[in-house]
Amino acid sequence: MYSKILIKFILLSLLLIVTSCESSHQQSFQQLESALVSWYYKYHPTSASELNISKYNHQIEKYNTESIEEYKADINRFMIELSQIDETKLKKEDLIRYLATDEFLFHKYNGLNFESHSYSVKTSIKNLYDSLFFIIHNSNLDMEQRAQFSLSRLNLFSTALNNIQKKLIYYSETDLKES
After folding, report:
1. Which of 94, 115, 120, 169 could form a disulfide with 90 if both were Cys (CB 3.0 to 4.6 A apart)?
2. Mean pLDDT along residues 44-67
3. Where are the domains of the chain?
4. With contact defined as beta carbons under 8 Å apart, do 137 and 52 qualify?
5. What's the whole-model pTM score?
6. Which residues contact 110 (CB under 8 A, 6 or more apart)?
């Protein structure tokens, strides 16, 4: 009688341990995912504005060396944190998002050449243009907010253009002419 109770207790304890470990991986991934989304919009305020996320409407992308180095270091930290999560312990829905997050971070860390892509004249100017376009055409903002956020971003353009010019590497005659 006591052995059956002891066996049930041990099995229940093991089940509880396995379940709590599984939920800690779930929770860790969900917290990482949430932090990654917030981080992404912090560094890509134009994308946030495009999606009507107004928290970063007064900012534009930063093109200075310190911000780029911080960006790279943050991606590296996210990759390390993600690698510490055992994806085999995740539920199917979270596993799919885990794999997408892993691919996203891999692309961001390995696929981008910060010197050529991020500072091409066309890409940089288009990004600055879009930063205003998405504010001006955001129907969720009243006219006063549109003007305020547009002015905030315009005030940052001079610094952004100077930083872009400092970091720009000319890869073609077209880039040289456009700058």
Report:
1. 94
2. 89
3. 27-37+61-112, 114-179
4. no
5. 0.72
6. none
